[in-house]
Design a protein that fits this description.
This protein has 16 helices and no strands. It is mainly α. This is Na(+)/H(+) antiporter NhaA.
């Protein structure tokens, strides 16, 4: 049997890890998990799975009172934010955002991609009690957006991926700030203050050569920081962000390399499955909550308009002399359409915004999935057309 065929039938550990790090396959896993959750929630197994999600797994001696669903959103998802923060730090220090000039276009584009969808949502949703869902359509899913680009973007210049990555990273930073500022109900200062020296110690130890005992200590400090942030009332994923930002680059890079496949295989699919575990509302289309329509419109339309308009303005501002714009409008449209895929972070925002109203949260979840799928379809069409144009131009040259 040829070696290549053996690698397909019996993939090596390296082959499996390469598969799990692939942007396109991680996007497929994410979508499949969400589809499975939505389908199962609307079968006979749905009530049992929902009950399991809402079952409390308390640790009374530590004062932890979390359901299975909250262990996923507050616990597992902290790993995702930890890895996102490592990538953010890399981009800010050595990547596409390491200077004010490089950061200008993606920063302005990201702000436009937050402000316009929020405005669209608020124009549709007039009920003051429901308007706290405005952050839901402001997020961009890095894994999903890059996955779509990897699948249909063959032939596109590397600058498009670089802009999308930079925009999505800044978008995540804005999302982190929104979570910290708007979804913290009862702040307990003491645990939060105690978390600060723990995070600083984590950063200091990460600057030493990684060894078995030090790795174990870093894990222990990371768990302790997560626990303290959880007890403070701030959303526990913020602990993952703080640890990822302060971790020494020489330790953070191999840590991200080692953890990324497991995040793609377990963390994100489990979260997508749990978040999508909602029964379709038994109401006619005209009786759906304004939240549903606000999200469905704001994700594909608000993101497309906001990112395109802001990036177009930013590229004009960044011109020097009579030199043409460094980013053609067609490239901007590709990035803007991909930016409308909210998914993971939008689902988290929905959970946080409507935690006390399961019915509205269910409609919000469906709206996030539908809005992200509409954005994905638009992105696939625009990206395919743009990639075909670049491939045709390359053949001519």
């Amino acid at each position: 049997m040829p070696g290549s065929l053996v690698g397909v039938v019996f993939p090596t550990p390296k082959g499996v890890m390469r598969f799990l790090r692939s942007e396109r396959y991680s996007a497929v896993l994410l979508l499949a998990a969400a589809a499975a959750g939505l389908l199962l929630a609307n079968t006979a197994a749905g009530p049992g799975l929902t009950a399991l999600r809402d079952t409390y797994l308390d640790i009374p001696p530590l004062g932890i009172h979390l359901t299975v669903g909250h262990w996923v959103t507050d616990g597992l998802l902290a790993i995702f934010f930890f890895l996102a923060a490592i990538e953010l730090r890399h981009e800010l220090t050595r990547g596409e955002l390491d200077s004010a000039r490089k950061a200008l276009v993606p920063t302005i584009a990201a702000v436009g991609g937050v402000v316009v969808p929020a405005i669209v949502f608020l124009l549709v949703v007039h009920d003051a009690e429901l308007q706290n869902g405005w952050p839901i359509p402001t997020a961009t899913d890095i894994a999903f957006a890059l996955g779509v680009l990897a699948v249909v973007g063959r032939g596109l210049p590397s600058r498009i991926r670089a802009l999308l990555l930079a925009l999505a990273v800044i978008d995540d930073l804005i999302a982190i700030l929104i979570i910290a500022m708007f979804f913290t109900e009862e702040l307990l200062p003491l645990p939060l203050l105690l978390a600060v020296p723990v995070v600083l110690l984590f950063g200091w130890i990460s600057r030493r050569t990684p060894r078995g005992s030090r790795i174990a200590l870093l894990v222990a400090l990371g768990v302790l920081a997560w626990y303290l942030v959880l007890q403070s009332g701030v959303h526990a994923t913020i602990a993952g962000v703080a640890l990822g930002l302060i971790m020494a680059p020489r330790t953070a890079a191999p840590a991200r390399h080692a953890m990324e496949p497991w995040s793609n295989l377990i963390v994100l699919p489990v979260f997508a499955f749990v978040a999508a575990l909602v029964a379709l509302p038994a109401v006619s289309i005209d009786r759906l909550s304004p939240v549903f329509w606000g999200i469905v419109l704001a994700l594909p339309l608000g993101k497309l308009v906001g990112i395109t308009g802001a990036a177009f303005i930013a590229t004009r501002l960044s011109r020097s002399g009579r030199r043409p714009s460094p980013l053609p409008l067609g490239d901007i449209l590709v990035v803007a359409s991909l930016g409308g895929i909210g998914f993971t972070v939008s689902l988290l925002m929905n959970e946080l915004a409507f935690e006390s109203s399961r019915e509205v949260a269910a409609e919000g979840t469906i709206a996030v999935i539908l809005g992200s799928l509409i954005s994905a379809v638009v992105a696939i069409v625009l990206t395919s057309l743009r990639a075909r144009r670049y491939r045709r131009r390359a053949r001519v040259l």
